[in-house]
Amino acid sequence: EVEEEELANSPDVVVVGSGIAGLSCAAVLSKYGYKVLVLESHSRPGGAAHSFEVKGQKGVYVFDSGPSLYSGLSEEDGAMAEQQRCVNPLKQVLDAVGEKVECINYDTWGVCLPEGDFPATVGSEPFCRDLERLFPGEEGEKAVAEWRNLQEYMTPLAAASVALPPAAIRFDLGLAATLFRYLPNMLKYPNLPMLIGPYSKVLEDVNMQNKFIKNWLDMLCFLLSGLPASGTIAAEVAFMFAEWYRPGVKLDYPKGGSDGIIKALIRGIEKHGGEVRLKSHVDQIMVAGGTAYGVRLKSGERVRAKKMVVSNAAMKSTLRLLPAGSLPEGWEQEQEDTPECPSFMHLHVGFDATGLKEAMGGKELCCHYMVVNDWDKGVDAEQNLVLVSIPSVLDPSMAPDGMHALHAYTPATEPYDLWKGLDRNSEEYANLKEERSQILWKAVERAIPDIRERVDVALVGTPLTHERFLRRHRGTYGPAIQAGKGIFPGPKTPINKLLLCGDSVFPGIGMPAVAASGMVAAHTMGLETLGKQQKLLDDLRI
Q1: What's the DSSP call for residue 188?
Q2: Which of these, 530, 416, 515, 378, lies nearest to 87 by C-alpha position?
Q3: pTM to 2 decimals?
Q4: Which of 177, 227, 376, 520 has the fewest CB atoms within 10 Å, measured from its CB?
Q5: pLDDT tens across 114-145, in order?
Q6: What is the model's pLDDT at position 84?
Q7: Residue 192, Cα to own-chain centre: how many angstroms?
Q8: pLDDT of 43 over the 50 cut
Q9: Of 99, 229, 101, 206, nearest to 148 (Cα)?
């Protein structure tokens, strides 16, 4: 009787983890009328996209822990459809639950490259002007011609990437129905198979010769997927091209940081009857007879799930939540053998903005900077590429008056083995933090020469920080699955009633991709969701 009562009061779906994927999955299922409970280990929701506050002597700073580049969140769907652009899957989720994120628009960031430091503006024509400035004369003319040729080649690929929207994808027999809906449009694009290959093949097909353009695209691919062009799926780049290199493009920054997105998703969940519980550390996904039936928390509490458990934990972290022997050895070993991207170094700084323009030689402070030290080493080389985000340039509420909040990081290039086994309270750990963070300080100094003299508060994060706070195996950015050599698995597992979402599964790494994975998991819960999915596609006019 106790078990029957426990089950009667249980949620239909338990989602482990409140990353973008888990919240997207929960939002869609809540919209469909399911009782959904999201359990988050951390005191802050959002996973790798959470924000946090730090109090310095001058006041409170709001820092993002992860993503800093966003697009396609603020523009109306009608305008996007007219331009044959794929609506950002994250925006589709927000639209589905009737939520919006207030965004601040901008179009320029700073780049600090071996060729020089300059402000770069998004859009095709501004990039052509940058090429002409970098390579005066005939070399610049050839570079612009090659870029325009690439754009012409990418236009049908971008349209093909729109042909089957992520919101229509599911990993069960219902896919036949949603495919049929989009089949006429898909048949217009014989180049569709090219989208699943590496982007480097596209560059080969257009005979791209300009070294700077190839380096630039390698960098953008790496920022999208954690892999250079040779490992990044062409569909991901086609989506980016459709977004970043169209006329009049503007990028988005969510007001309040990534927390603005997280709060909007949670509002969408809660207003449809779902719940997000923080400080609820899942110790084990409970399995009996090959079926997942709930989770056990570190506190000892057991939570049953009537219909499904969805894990938004990374694949290898999920494996460690399952009872020994619950998975087929071959499948489990295959997941364990999947290569992983390295980890991160992070630097969060609150600093004084007084006299900043003079200190920068009359230059304006940009909201973002991309710093590359040596193209020849490769964008995936250790301590070579640094991203710097200063969102308080756009949103002053993220720092005290007269101050700025800065986040610099090495994206997926910091080896975990350098840090493995170190005691976080040891002198050795402190010394290594000091040593390995210098590349971040130096990158910031490319833009703000006297940054160290302006510091109010500074925090350094390491792969161990990443592993501890985000429960990421070895602090990884995600799987290093090379396009053309491997494919991301779908949301299904050998365990009945256990699905996966997040960057370990299709369609992969990146904010739009993980939001899509959340929708895919929601729709793969069973054929009972098919009618609801079809209505959602109608409502969103996709």
Answers
A1: T
A2: 515
A3: 0.94
A4: 376
A5: 999 999 988 888 899 999 999 999 999 999 99
A6: 45
A7: 24
A8: yes
A9: 206
Question: Do residues 309 and 12 touch, judged by C-beta distance below 8 A?
Answer: no
3-state secondary structure 462-505: CHHHHHHHHCCHHHCCCECCCCCCCCCCCCECCCECEEECCCCC
Alpha helices by DSSP H, 189-274? 199-205, 211-225, 234-244, 258-270
Segment among 81-85, 298-302, 391-395 with least mean pLDDT: 81-85
d(CA 260, CA 253): 10
Tokens of 80: 């996007």
Residue 144 has, within 13 A of its CA and on its CB side, a CA count of 18
Q: Is 427 exposed, middle or buried (0-12, 13-18, 19+ CB in 10 A)?
A: exposed
Beta bridge partners of 440: none
**Helix boundaries (H) for 9-86:** 20-31, 77-82
SS3 329: helix
Distance CA 326, CA 113 (A): 50
- Other CB atoms within a 10 A radius of the CB of residue 197 amount to 14
Counting every residue written for the chain, the total comes to 542
pLDDT tens readout for residues 367-394: 999 999 999 999 999 999 999 999 999 9
Please tell me the distance from the alpha carbon of residue 495 to that of residue 216, in angstroms, as a whole number.
43
Residue 225: pLDDT band with limits 50, 70, 90: confident
| Share of the chain residues as helix, strand and coil, in percent rounded to the nearest 5 | 40, 20, 35
Structure tokens at 127: 């990039």
Which residue, among 274, 198, 236, has the nearest Cα to 32 in the 3D structure? 274
What is the DSSP-derived secondary structure letter of residue 327? S
The two tokens of residue 515 are 């939001």
Name the residue among 331, 329, 332, 307 with its Cα closest to residue 319.
332
Q: Which amino acid is at 168?
A: A
Query: CB of 147 within 8 A of CB of 498?
Result: no
Q: What is the dihedral of CA 113, 117, 120, 124, to 10 degrees?
A: -60
Residue pair 321/312 in contact by the 8 Å Cβ criterion: no
The string of pLDDT tens digits covering residues 314-342 is 999 999 999 999 999 999 999 999 999 99
Burial zone of 104 (CB within 10 Å; 0-12 exposed, 13-18 middle, 19+ buried): middle
Q: How far apart are CA 122 and CA 105, in angstroms?
A: 12
